[in-house]
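Q: Given only this backbone (243 positions), what sequence would you predict?
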């Protein structure tokens, strides 16, 4: 009812991805001609800059990641849409295949207690670390070797743009908002939603194949270059002029 009442009085609807725009017009009743897609982005000067081995080692040490550890991680909100329970479920298989691997979840949210209880039930111990809220996302991403995005549904998460800009190998689900910016085999490995086994398999395969991981990382950096936050700002400015 609210959507029907508000639609005639809304000059412009801004969607952060093509799939969000489709939802806006189909479910939120906004006319297509008044719906504009403006992708978010990352500050490339912060996330795409080269980092020295010493800087990365320092970041890992701050987060408690040992030098020999293969760090599989995510930066996320601990909420239902993010699907983090499937990443927790994938930890035993990841570590069984690569005993030197550890999984790290940075972020906070309503499901933190439930996820920690899931980890205790699975007996994960030190194999999974909840890093809590982290202000310096760039530092955290630089410390990870493989990024995992187990989302169930998304608009387009900022962390994906930041990860792309940094040039990290990505394993992500086929959630619409992720598929809007990621391409399987080019800048990420795409796996089905709600499938912890496939998630673990994809992560393990990237660890087994460092050349493939490096190729995907280079592809990620190339894709990330198209999503500079300054481009988002310029598009928003043009929309204000249009209004």
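A: Predicted residues:
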């Amino acid at each position: 009812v609210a959507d029907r009442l508000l639609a005639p009085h809304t000059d412009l609807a801004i969607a952060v991805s093509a799939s969000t725009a489709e939802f806006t017009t189909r479910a939120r009743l906004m006319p297509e001609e008044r719906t504009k897609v403006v992708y978010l982005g990352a500050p490339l000067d912060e996330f795409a800059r080269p980092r020295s081995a010493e800087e990365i080692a320092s970041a890992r040490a701050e987060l408690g990641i040992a030098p020999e550890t293969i760090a599989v991680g995510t930066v996320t909100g601990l909420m239902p849409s993010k699907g983090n329970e499937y990443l927790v479920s994938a930890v035993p298989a990841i570590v069984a295949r690569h005993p030197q691997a550890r999984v790290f979840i940075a972020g906070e949210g309503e499901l933190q207690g439930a996820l920690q209880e899931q980890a205790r039930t699975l007996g994960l111990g030190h194999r999974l670390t909840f890093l809590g809220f982290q202000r310096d996302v760039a530092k955290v991403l630089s410390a990870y070797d493989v990024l995992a995005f187990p989302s169930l549904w998304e608009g387009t998460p900022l962390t994906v743009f930041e990860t792309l800009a940094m040039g990290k190998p990505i394993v992500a689900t086929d959630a619409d908002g992720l598929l809007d910016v990621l391409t399987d085999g080019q800048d990420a490995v795409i796996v089905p939603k709600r499938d912890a086994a496939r998630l673990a398999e994809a992560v393990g395969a990237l660890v087994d194949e460092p050349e493939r991981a490096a190729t995907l990382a280079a592809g990620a950096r190339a894709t990330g270059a198209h999503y500079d936050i300054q481009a988002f700002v310029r598009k928003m400015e043009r929309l204000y002029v249009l209004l």
